[in-house]
Amino acid sequence: MMMQLSETPNQKNSLLNAMNRFIGAVNNMDQTIMVPSLLRDVPLDEDRELGSLKSDVDEGDMYSYYELLKSIRSDIEWGVRRAAADERRKESMKITRKNSSASTSSSSSVSSSSSSDDDEEEDEDLQKQFQYHLTGLQGVLSKLTQQANCLTKRYKQEIGIGGWGQ
């Protein structure tokens, strides 16, 4: 389980804090929802905040989204599931085999001066890719945190605890 860290103003937008906020929201959701089966057949579209995600969830009810949020939390805490990693590894091996024969024939024509320029461009490109994906991941984690909080609120409303305006 990840340790909850206190946020300083400079760290508010850090990836670690975004992950901690999400994990905290899902932990709160998990502790609040004592009877998850009550979420079955409760449609997401009754809530504007959750309704936009209906297409992402197969069954389209709050229970399936509850399970999805817990699964994502588990992936963050323990790593991506082994089956998905194995599938990617197999796909990567296919691509590597295809590219290895093509790259061996083309690599002999590359000069050493252009190689160092390519390395600098590749490093800059990697930094841009990292920043792009980091920004996207932080945005997704922020939305998932909101969804976990919204689902918790909806559950409280469904079972009649907590105020409607909270």
UniProtKB/TrEMBL annotation:
Subcellular location: Cytoplasm; Nucleus
Coiled coil: none
Compositionally biased intervals (Low complexity): 100-115
GO cellular component, one term: nucleus
Keyword Transit peptide: no
Superkingdom of the source species: Eukaryota
Residues covered by region (Disordered): 86-126
Similarity remark: Belongs to the SPOT14 family.
Protein name stated in the entry: MID1 interacting protein 1a
Biological source species: Anabas testudineus (Climbing perch)
Lineage, top ranks: Eukaryota, Metazoa, Chordata, Craniata, Vertebrata
